[in-house]
């Protein structure tokens, strides 16, 4: 008798894609994607804090179907979701950023191209409406070149990550001596093959590359310079303190991404969702506020909207889905979950969701 193996069960929620990806990815790549910094306290806290947010539903709303589309950064989007910037997506699938960007375009949501994307930003922007995420590099001429390239490629916004003066100590990568394979490079940077490809036991090669390439002493003055160099809408990603959010608006930011980098930077940092309400109170009438870190479901999106966010960024679940050629399915599942959650909460649209009240479990 032939050895018949049952096909994998379909994904019923976004978390299911991680299990599916485990069947196709090497252990060290899975750990690079899944891991956080230090003892991963903040990584775990992001999830528990979101689970602790309760929403008070409204009833008898007379709604048969919720409209999940909305306006974000002045344009219409299919749902209040942005695909987060994530580096080196060819690690999980040969199609990498191009495949995920196409799925984002089909879902009608913005795709954020990472400075460390494994395809050139121009190629990615050709297949999907995109924003560009900027890491601040030691060579300001390269920073300026990346801004010019993003504008020329038609990127709709610029998102500057401000919480990586140095890379957090990610112990899974250190233990694995993690390095990039030769065919995965930071395609936007000159001399793309770098320290990131040199494996050393007990060291993270990706962290070594970050240390040599990133400027640790970036300041508000640098952001003022950046604001003077581009007319693109400007988001700052990695804000957790309301005082920093206020300063960001003062230097001309159009949006804030409340984020602890998915638990991958300062271990012990506040959960992003716990920081969100104070930042909304401080600047929510002056700029868009997005929530990042830990989003795993349509219910999480509803929680963020009820707490005052304009929308959310979602990252890891889409990398797991990318690994198994299921980016489109993952985004469609998220859209359905959000629609169901809004309907159950008595919301006809995203504006209604923003008027819900919340509590703590």
UniProtKB/TrEMBL annotation:
<dbReference type="InterPro" id="IPR037396">
    <property type="entry name" value="FMN_HAD"/>
</dbReference>
<dbReference type="InterPro" id="IPR000262">
    <property type="entry name" value="FMN-dep_DH"/>
</dbReference>
<dbReference type="Pfam" id="PF01070">
    <property type="entry name" value="FMN_dh"/>
</dbReference>
<dbReference type="InterPro" id="IPR012133">
    <property type="entry name" value="Alpha-hydoxy_acid_DH_FMN"/>
</dbReference>
<comment type="similarity">
    <text>Belongs to the FMN-dependent alpha-hydroxy acid dehydrogenase family.</text>
</comment>
<dbReference type="InterPro" id="IPR008259">
    <property type="entry name" value="FMN_hydac_DH_AS"/>
</dbReference>
<feature type="domain" description="FMN hydroxy acid dehydrogenase">
    <location>
        <begin position="6"/>
        <end position="361"/>
    </location>
</feature>
<dbReference type="InterPro" id="IPR013785">
    <property type="entry name" value="Aldolase_TIM"/>
</dbReference>
<keyword id="KW-0288">FMN</keyword>
<keyword id="KW-0285">Flavoprotein</keyword>
<keyword id="KW-0560">Oxidoreductase</keyword>
<protein>
    <submittedName>
        <fullName>Alpha-hydroxy acid oxidase</fullName>
    </submittedName>
</protein>
């Amino acid at each position: 008798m032939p050895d018949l193996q049952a096909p994998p069960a379909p994904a019923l929620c976004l978390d299911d894609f991680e299990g599916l990806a485990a069947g196709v990815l090497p252990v060290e790549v899975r750990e690079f994607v899944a891991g956080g910094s230090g003892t991963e306290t903040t990584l775990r806290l992001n999830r528990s804090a979101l689970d602790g947010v309760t929403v008070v539903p409204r009833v008898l709303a007379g709604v048969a179907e919720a409209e999940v589309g909305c306006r974000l950064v002045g344009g219409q989007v299919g749902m209040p979701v942005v695909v987060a910037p994530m580096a080196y997506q060819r690690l999980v699938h040969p199609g990498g950023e191009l495949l995920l960007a196409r799925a984002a375009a089909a879902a009608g949501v913005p795709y954020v191209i990472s400075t460390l994307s494994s395809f050139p930003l121009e190629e990615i922007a050709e297949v999907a409406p995109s924003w560009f995420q900027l890491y601040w590099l030691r060579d300001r001429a390269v920073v300026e070149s990346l801004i010019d390239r993003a504008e020329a490629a038609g990127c709709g916004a610029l998102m500057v990550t401000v919480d990586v003066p140095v890379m957090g100590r990610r112990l899974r990568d250190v233990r694995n001596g993690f390095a990039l394979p030769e065919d995965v490079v930071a395609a936007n940077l000159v001399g793309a093959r770098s320290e990131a490809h040199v494996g050393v036991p007990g060291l993270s090669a990706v962290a070594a590359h970050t240390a040599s390439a990133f400027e640790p002493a970036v300041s508000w003055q640098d952001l003022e310079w950046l604001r003077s160099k581009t007319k693109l809408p400007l988001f700052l990603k990695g804000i957790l303190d309301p005082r920093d959010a206020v300063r960001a608006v003062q230097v001309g930011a159009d949006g804030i991404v409340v984020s602890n980098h998915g638990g991958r930077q300062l271990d012990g940092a506040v959960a992003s969702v716990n920081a969100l309400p104070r930042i909304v109170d401080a600047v929510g009438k002056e700029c868009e506020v997005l929530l990042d870190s830990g989003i795993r479901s349509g219910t999480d999106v509803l929680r963020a909207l009820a707490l005052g966010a304009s929308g959310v960024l979602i990252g890891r679940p889409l990398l797991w889905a990318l690994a198994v050629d299921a980016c489109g399915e993952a985004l469609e599942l998220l859209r359905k979950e959000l629609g169901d959650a809004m309907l159950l909460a008595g919301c006809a649209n995203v504006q209604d969701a923003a008027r819900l009240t919340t509590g703590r479990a």
